[in-house]
Amino acid sequence: MRSPKKLRARNKKRLLPQIVGIMKDISSPAAVKALLKERGLSPNKQLGQNFLVDTNMINKIADAAEVTKADAVLEIGPGLGALTQELSERAGSVVAVEIDSGLAQALETTLLGRENITVIHADFLKCDLAELHHALGGGSFKVAANLPYYITTAIIMRILESGLPYVSMSFLVQKEVADRMAAFPGTKSYGSLSIAVQYYTNVQVVLSVPRGCFLPPPGVDSVVVRLTARPPKVAVPKVEDFFRITRAAFAMRRKTLANNLAQGLGIGKDRAQQLIRAANLPENVRGEELSLEQFAEIARAYTQVDG
């Protein structure tokens, strides 16, 4: 991860007059288009870049994050900094991680003079989390972000499994992903992501975000979801065993839990059926029917013998 870089006023001398004006408002389509043109940039589809261009919605997303001056905030994928500006007004400090070099340089303009912001040019999925936590002040923090849709799950899972002391995560995500995070057993959306998120957090879908709030408009519906940290919902001897089991359970949704566990854990079907019986479940049950506690029962039985 590259060293954190505070934005400094020394950049001001080389700003064009029109950019200074844009810096004050980068939440409108006209301002975003002008800044992108000035910088020779365009939305990168491969990086899932859809810029927020609605001030009212930006304020609502910041509201959902419940940020105060006592908070350090991590933002992933700040883009041109529209949400970052609003978070800066409310938070004690903001650390924004941006993978795109062109946008990271543009942020030197759009966030100019905001001394409580640190921009880090890095890939969040590869950066050193200990260094990142140090940049956040080393204590608890909140996360707020308009996430790139193509790597939403990977980003969320990295934070959940990091062991870092996050208080909450408020994300603008694809509606389908939010549905999966909040899904109940027995529903089509329920799966390993539902279990992972609900194991670590309380999930709340806060508001819907129309496609017209973005430039360019995405091809999917979007929502803001807030994940509030809490102690794990179920007790298991080994967390890694629990998640190995849940991932295996949903590997092939049309197969029974016994078949999926046998193949995913490499334990044979007889042993898989023993685990299912130990949890007082029918042998033909499917993974999507089980609650977190039922998966925990299987994990306990598995760890006792196989772990």
Structure, described:
The model is unreliable at 6-22 (pLDDT under 50). It is elongated and about 65 Å long. By secondary structure, the chain is α/β, with parallel strands linked by helices. It starts with a strand and ends with a helix. The chain has helices at 17-24, 29-39, 55-65, 82-90, 101-110, 129-135, 152-160, 175-182, 192-200, 239-249, 257-265, 269-278, 292-305, and strands spanning 5-6, 51-52, 72-76, 93-98, 117-121, 141-146, 166-174, 201-209, 214-215, 222-229. 41% of the residues lie in helices and 18% in strands. α7 (152-160) packs parallel to α9, α10 (239-249) crosses α11 and α11 (257-265) packs across α12 (269-278). It folds into two domains: 5-229, Rossmann fold; 239-305, Orthogonal Bundle (Helicase, Ruva Protein, domain 3). It has an eight-stranded mixed sheet. Strands 2-9 form a two-stranded antiparallel sheet.
List keywords for this structure.
307 residues, Helicase, Ruva Protein, domain 3, alpha/beta, two-stranded antiparallel sheet
Number of helices: 13
Q: Could you say how many structural domains there are in total? A: 2
CATH superfamily (homologous) name of the largest domain: Vaccinia Virus protein VP39
CATH overall fold name of the largest domain: Rossmann fold
Which strand order spans the largest sheet, edge to edge or round the barrel? 1-5-4-3-6-7-10-8
- Distance from N terminus to C terminus (CA atoms, Å) equals 35 Å
The biggest beta sheet, please? 8 strands, mixed
Amount of beta strand: 15-25%
Considering DSSP H and I runs of 4 or more, what fraction of the residues is helical?
Answer: 40-55%
Low-confidence stretches: 6-22
- Assign the CATH class of the largest domain: Alpha Beta
* Overall outline: elongated
